[in-house]
Amino acid sequence: MVSSKDQDVMFSIVIFLAFGLCFVDSQFPRVCTSEASFRTKTCCPLWKDKSPCGSLSGRGKCIAWAASTAKKIPQYNDDRLDWPRHYYENTCECFGNYSGFNCGDCKFGYHGEKCDRKKINIRREIRELSALEQRRFFSYLALAKTTKSQDFVVLSTGDRHHRETYRFVDASLYDVFVWMHYYSMKPIMINSTFIPEKNFAHQGPVFPGWHRLNLLFLERQIQLMTRDEDFTIPYYDWRSDKNCSICTDELLGTNDEQGVINPYSYFSFWRAICSGFNFPDEYCPLADSEYKMERVHRKPGTTPYAPNMPTFQDVENTLKLKNFDTPPYNETSLYSFRNALEGFLSPDGATLKRSMHNLVHIYIGGTMSQIPISSNDPFFLLHHSFVDKIFESWIVRYNGSPMTYPENNEIGQGPNDCATPFFPCYKNKDFISRSEELGYQFSTYAGDM
Ligand SMILES: *[C@@H]1O[C@H](CO)[C@@H](O)[C@H](O)[C@H]1NC(C)=O
Ligand SMILES: *[C@@H]1O[C@H](CO)[C@@H](O)[C@H](O)[C@H]1NC(C)=O
Ligand SMILES: *[C@@H]1O[C@H](CO)[C@@H](O)[C@H](O)[C@H]1NC(C)=O
Ligand SMILES: *[C@@H]1O[C@H](CO)[C@@H](O)[C@H](O)[C@H]1NC(C)=O
């Protein structure tokens, strides 16, 4: 049980931080949103040794994209095409175990000043954590939600057609993470026309890897913020769960019939960044008007067309699909592990039907069912951590057979495209690999898969 004393302490911390900080920003390195950076199209910040990308210390170097596969992006086209070239022709490329927008950080799984310490953490089911560990997890999230990101800002505009309206604003660490999902999901604009249902993180082969990277980003940011290298995002094993058994006040919180989360639980005060509107021609227009954001809410088990969670058998059947993805590499792909996992295809591989990942979003309802802003509910973390566990089981099961990321025609989803909107460039094809290469593994839970 969470005592009322703890609640009081938590609320005071939150109120203090709310007054002490301004909220809202985007996944743009703050130092690269200066007028000079945009004019020179360069995002090669100085590291501690005062050289761009830490080049004097051998951490990385500033590379020109123009020299490689230059495609010209006209103004009336989407700013995310051929990421990150609309904004920057020059970005850091980091050597060895170094990473980060200025090569000041380490690749996932590496730690220490010289990034020479490899460490493999275990992600566990939330109910496997002790009460103390659960509370530490919720405290870290509260801190991430209320601590302004020093490194990143977020993009905001009510009119995507006009670049002069684009603003870069502050956001908390957690909200930067939420914004990345939102930004990647906006319809793609070509010649001032929006292509509905096309985006950079879903409905194609990029889905499992993009979300893996998104969680790794937050996990790493929380490790840096708390100096707790052991921190991992837990998962929620939802197989055949009856009615969100983790929606208790000790864990994710209970809710009333309107979906309001119980004030005596952890997330009742959370507000959803980029909520309120969802027009194609905007990017999070009220990113800095906290009072206009709606509250995170949830209505598990009340949506008639999502009557149950996916079952043990559904997961087992999904894992039997041995093709990572199949033509045409969108939400109509049949016998595609990716499309069944994402949930446009039933686990038998043969019929297009809501299932798996999509079904859980809809089953939980409220903020979780508004997919672009769904990561405002920390439920998203636990859900996607489990989706990643299923992805990992698939990788392990078919190890040996070719696990190549397919060539495809979905915009931004090619094997060598940079995952949008991450810095530095992470190639889409690089995430179909064992999770221990990225510094984590999953615990064994409930008989497993
Ligand atoms: C990366 O880290 C490993 C230790 O896990 C170390 O052996 C290796 O030398 C490092 N690589 C570079 C290029 O520093
Ligand atoms: C966009 O419009 C220009 C000029 O009308 C045209 O040349 C170009 O092919 C169009 N591009 C796309 C992707 O439709
Ligand atoms: C889940 O619980 C809610 C709230 O108690 C209830 O309204 C709903 O009918 C339940 N759904 C299922 C599928 O059991
Ligand atoms: C999926 O791809 C096929 C083949 O290119 C196309 O006909 C279909 O419209 C696409 N579906 C969606 C929803 O994009």
Mean pLDDT: 90
Poorly predicted sequence stretches spanning 5 or more consecutive residues: 1-26
Cα radius of gyration in angstroms: 21 Å
| Shape estimate | globular
Q: How widely separated are the two ends?
A: 32 Å
Under the CATH scheme, the architecture is Orthogonal Bundle
Number of strands: 14
- Which strands sit side by side, in order, in the main sheet? 1-10-11
Description:
The structure is a single chain. The chain is an alpha+beta fold and 449 residues long. The chain has one domain: di-copper center containing domain from catechol oxidase (Orthogonal Bundle). The protein is 26% helix and 9% strand. The protein is built from nine helices and 14 strands. The radius of gyration is 21 Å and the shape is globular. The model is unreliable at 1-26 (pLDDT under 50). Bound molecules: 2-acetamido-2-deoxy-beta-D-glucopyranose (4 copies). One 2-acetamido-2-deoxy-beta-D-glucopyranose binds at residues 197, 328, 330-332.
TL;DR?
The chain has 449 residues and is an alpha+beta fold.
Topology:
Elements: H1 4-20, E1 28-29, H2 35-40, E2 42-43, E3 60-64, E4 90-94, E5 98-99, E6 105-106, E7 110-111, E8 117-118, E9 121-123, H3 131-146, E10 152-156, E11 167-169, H4 173-185, E12 188-190, E13 193-195, H5 207-226, H6 312-320, H7 337-342, H8 356-364, H9 379-397, E14 440-442
Parallel strand pairs: 2-4, 9-14
Antiparallel strand pairs: 1-10, 3-4, 5-6, 7-8, 10-11, 12-13
Helix pairs in contact: 1-3, 4-5, 5-9
